Amino acid sequence: MKSYRKELWFNTPTRRAFINITPQIDECLRESGIKEGLCLVNAMHITASVFINDDESGLHQDFEKWLEKLAPEKPYSQYKHNGFEDNADAHLKRTVMGREVVVAVTNGKLDFGPWEQIFYGEFDGKRRKRVLVKIIGE
């Protein structure tokens, strides 16, 4: 069995962002040479997420609106966590959106359902963060 590991780095100019990282994951899969196995993609920061969904701008706006209703950024004083930092809402948003995804690798390709894409979700941006890609298989 082969194993491949790579870190992808992101530094968004905004506090929140959704980035389609499917092309980078496809490139990792090509680099790995693995044809059959599993691909794990996970955020290595507690205020960022990796998730699978449709790459549709209206849906991304809906995510933003829905997450802001669930865990509004302001007022910062509403959260006990906020003191040194002002990112309690980002921790909560990450919990809802998830830490990682695992995608089957079949015939050297990510084995997606219709419209599925992999996204990096940033909830406390403006600083450098990483995503781990781990692919195992034959």
Task: Give the tags.
138 residues, alpha+beta, Jelly Rolls, 5-stranded antiparallel beta sheet, 3-stranded antiparallel beta sheet, 3 helices, 36% strand, elongated
Gist?
With 138 residues, the protein is an alpha+beta fold. 25% of the residues lie in helices and 36% in strands. It contains three helices and eight strands; from the N terminus they run ββαββααββββ.
Describe this structure in words.
The protein has one domain: Jelly Rolls (Sandwich). The protein has 138 residues and is of the alpha+beta class. It contains 3 helices and 8 strands; from the N terminus they run E-E-H-E-E-H-H-E-E-E-E.
Number of helices: 3
Please describe the biggest sheet, giving its number of strands, its sense, and whether it closes into a barrel. 5 strands, antiparallel
The helix content is 25-40%
| Count of discrete structural domains | 1
Low-confidence stretches: none
Morphology? elongated
CATH architecture identity: Sandwich
CATH topology: Jelly Rolls
Order of helices and strands: EEHEEHHEEEE
Mean pLDDT: 97
Q: DSSP strand (E) fraction?
A: 35-45%
Q: Which CATH top level class fits?
A: Mainly Beta
Terminal Cα span: 5 Å
Number of strands: 8
Radius of gyration: 16 Å
By secondary-structure content and strand pairing, the structural class works out as alpha+beta
Say what oligomer this is: single chain
